[in-house]
Design goal:
Largest sheet: 3 strands, antiparallel
CATH architecture: 2-Layer Sandwich
Strand content: 15-25%
CATH class: Alpha Beta
Number of strands: 3
Structural class: alpha+beta
Helix content: 55-70%
CATH topology: Ybab, Chain: A
Shape: rod-shaped
Strand order of the largest sheet: 1-2-3
Number of domains: 1
CATH superfamily: Nucleoid-associated protein YbaB-like domain
Distance between the termini: 24 Å
Oligomer: single chain
């Protein structure tokens, strides 16, 4: 492998890193609101809880948080599809 190939790989890695940072930034700006059994959870798509309100029953709160996590994972997966499709990685 020549020096130019190594430089190209470094450039490709920088592009991947920049793309990943951009996706992370987008995910942090997407808010998901889940209302489940009297509990409302607001979470960002990068899975940071913004707020929890409503019923104080811990089982209901846990269910609502888990539902919000599930939805945030779906949103994140969709956002990541664009990143992975643009990288041209074999097997992806």
């Amino acid at each position: 492998m020549g020096m130019f190939d190594k430089l190209k790989q470094l450039g490709d890695l920088k592009k991947m890193r920049d793309s990943a940072l951009e996706v992370q930034k987008r995910l942090s700006g997407i808010k998901i609101t889940v209302e489940h059994k009297g509990v409302t959870v607001v979470m960002t798509a990068d899975q940071k809880v913004v707020s929890i309100s409503g019923d104080n029953d811990l089982d209901k709160v846990a269910e609502a948080v888990n539902e919000a996590l599930k939805q945030s994972q779906k949103v994140a997966a969709e956002e990541m599809k664009g990143l992975m499709g643009g990288l041209g990685l074999p097997g992806m």
